[in-house]
Amino acid sequence: MGCDHAGYPLKVSLKAFLAERGHEVLDLGTDSEEMVDYPDFCAATARAVVDGRAERGIVLGGSGQGEQLAANKVKGTRAALCNDLHLAELSRRHNDANVLAMGGRIVAVQLAREILQLWLDTPFEGGRHERRLQQVAEIERGER
Asked: Residue 59 contacts by C-beta under 8 Å, 6 or more apart in sequence?
């Protein structure tokens, strides 16, 4: 998990939620509501997923939008901004998202927990979606 100051309160709640359910949480900061810039925290979270230190990642900020963008700059990351249940499910079923982004100023804690649980429980469908993800990876490999 990684966040900026605006995502910190939601991170604290979701970290406890995950621990209660037996998940080990790698907390990559930040550690307070003191203002910080989000890119380094989000990139660190994405790198932890891509290099295998974490199965999936969660990045949190005010809206989640910048956090998603920063995480997606790490090759191999498929970060999805999911501020509702429908997007959380589709991000996993169709896009095999490996990083979840949410906005602490957008999503209430209870809904964020529901989004997270659905996102963790939803499998990737594969099939036609796998071909599309391979195409996205090809684009990524071609970028400098």
From this structure: 1, 2, 3, 7, 38, 41, 42, 45, 46, 67, 68, 70, 71, 79, 99, 100, 101
Catalytic option among 89, 94, 125, 129: 94
**Selected catalytic residue, list 24, 33, 55, 67:** 67
Instruction: Give yes or no: 67 in active site.
Output: yes
Percent of the chain with pLDDT over 90: 98
> CB 143: neighbour CB atoms within 10 A?
6
Average pLDDT score over the chain = 97
pLDDT band for 144, please (50, 70, 90 cuts): low
Is 129 annotated in the active site?
no
